[in-house]
Amino acid sequence: MNQTTTPARASRITSEVDFARDGKQVGFLRLPHSVHRSAYGWIPIPVACVRNGAGPTVLLMAGNHGDEYEGQIAHAKLLRQLEAKDVRGTLIFLTSANFPAADAGMRTSPIDGGNLNRSFPGDPDGGPTAQIAWYIENVLLPQCDYVLDLHSGGSSLMYVPSANCQRATDPERMRRSLELLQAFAAPVSYVTDAAQGGDQTLTAAARRQGVVHLGTELAGGGTVTLAALRAAEQGVRRVLQRVGVLADSVPADPPPPTRLLQVRGPTYFVYAAERGFFEPLVELGEEVAAGQQAGLIHSHDTPWREPAVALFQRAGVVICKRVPCRTERGDCLFHLGSTYEA
Length: 342
Hints:
Layout: E1 14-15, E2 23-32, E3 42-52, E4 57-62, H1 69-81, E5 89-94, H2 99-104, H3 128-140, E6 146-150, E7 157-159, E8 162-166, H4 171-184, E9 188-192, H5 202-208, E10 212-217, H6 226-243, E11 259-263, E12 269-271, E13 276-280, E14 287-288, E15 293-298, E16 308-311, E17 316-322, E18 326-327, E19 332-339
Parallel strand pairs: 4-5, 4-6, 6-10, 8-9, 9-11
Antiparallel strand pairs: 1-2, 2-3, 3-5, 7-17, 8-10, 11-19, 12-19, 13-15, 13-18, 14-17, 15-16, 17-19
């Protein structure tokens, strides 16, 4: 377990769950929130802990973005299935981390507009999203050895069901991350050079706290697919067994093959240069070449104009594409992966 010193600044969030107590506990994190209808109220963020003696501690997190449902469902199902006897160590469940966003089915919080995965390290005296980020980074993560952060494409993107980690300069940390990718065994696994949100992401928070982070992008499109949900459920079980916190008596399927890729910078992404209607010219999983047409943006207000053409800047495999047809300049249309190089 990481032994990072508790920060001098205290969180205003309190927990109904005692993370040091053996057994299975469920309850809420209480985030104080004073509004017109409730002067001394609090936002109830669901939290649970399943603990059984000594062993690794793993934070199982989903709902970092509220419109990404696969992880929220997968973690909730596992929580209902497990008892303390099934665990060697501690599992902390934060299934709807940015609860206001999850409650509204939105990527960001309807209260303060906060994107939790762009809010770390947060602020214990800030708005709701900043307070949640502070609590995760400075209260939960210092207790943990690993964090499984389940994302998907949300409302605007669709992925080939994938797991991911960030490239590490420390060889041992990189080895452990690749080991978890192989255990999760999503159809695609990829290594990123840097998270899209830089130092404001949970990935960066985990790195600061010395915690091994594993992320996912499990389909998306504002829905749940059977394949993505099964990949999430079985992948989480395999990872927990690999790190030794889940008893072997809890069944998990053997890991299927996974394709190991990398995402190494801006040339892996395609963005809309105009606003209009997006017509994709390739599908998920296709191999593409540098300079190949990726999609067309049709002008709905001047339909006599020829559509704008979006091009792939490099060769690779299409692992993500935009779902909504209506597109604004700057929206991500695709991103690619290429064969992993150590």
